[in-house]
Design goal:
Layout: H1 26-29, H2 40-60, H3 68-84, H4 97-118, H5 120-126, H6 137-149, H7 151-175, H8 185-220
Length: 222
């Protein structure tokens, strides 16, 4: 199993693990002219960002004051790294809890600190759902507190686990290529293509889920 998981190993022959530089390679791959000269790719991306802006504005409310751009940037960063990991011999940074927790934990901490300092009564009331019987209130406070604490962990694990699962499936199918009859190579290739399409959809969905859940957590403290 060590060889199977070696694709997720961030170490290199250098003293500094340069694999993590793939997280910011978009600054190199996307030229500055892309943002200045209108083209089809830019128009499509602009429509996607506009739709995300409207949705995040609805979730955050009218008092967001530009907060939607934080979650749009978060979505773009995760989406780029998810797609980059689908290319051969490129490190998938979003498959590591080091990156996913680095994104989720500071956001959650900032939301909690802001909410408890500025909206203390609202945060306390949020621990007891409306209509809870008085006898169950102490248990509901414990349950809501635990569910609130594990939020950054669930965000991070969900993204990393989905990225790892898809890459492991593609690795397993790729390793079987040398052991199957030549008549089944076409079937294997078609399966790999379908799995790659599925992983592309998963990359988009997981980026969207991460950004939407983060925006929902932010809206709860306002």
């Amino acid at each position: 199993m060590a060889n199977l998981f070696s694709s997720f190993d961030p170490s290199t022959s250098f003293y500094i693990p340069l694999n993590w530089l793939s997280t910011i390679l978009c600054l190199i791959f996307i030229p500055y002219s892309f943002w200045l000269i209108p083209n089809r790719s830019f128009s499509l991306w602009k429509k996607i960002l506009s739709s995300l802006h409207k949705e995040f504005k609805t979730l955050l409310g009218p008092s967001s004051k530009g907060g939607t751009f934080i979650f749009i940037s978060l979505f773009s960063l995760i989406l780029y790294n998810n797609f980059l990991g689908l290319f051969p011999y490129i490190f998938t940074s979003t498959s590591h809890l080091v990156l996913t927790l680095t994104l989720a934990l500071p956001l959650w901490l900032s939301f909690m600190i802001f909410g408890w300092i500025n909206n203390t009564i609202h945060m306390l009331a949020h621990l007891v759902p409306q209509g809870t019987p008085p006898l169950l209130m102490p248990f509901m406070v414990c349950i809501e507190t635990i569910s609130n604490i594990i939020r950054p962990g669930t965000l991070a694990v969900r993204l990393a686990a989905n990225m790892i699962a898809g890459h492991l499936l593609m690795t397993l199918l790729g390793n079987t290529g040398s052991s199957i009859p030549s008549s089944l190579i076409i079937v294997l290739l078609l399966t790999q293509i379908l799995l790659l399409v599925l992983e592309s959809a998963v990359a988009i969905i997981q980026s969207y889920v991460f950004a939407v859940l983060s925006s929902l957590y932010s809206s709860e403290v306002n």
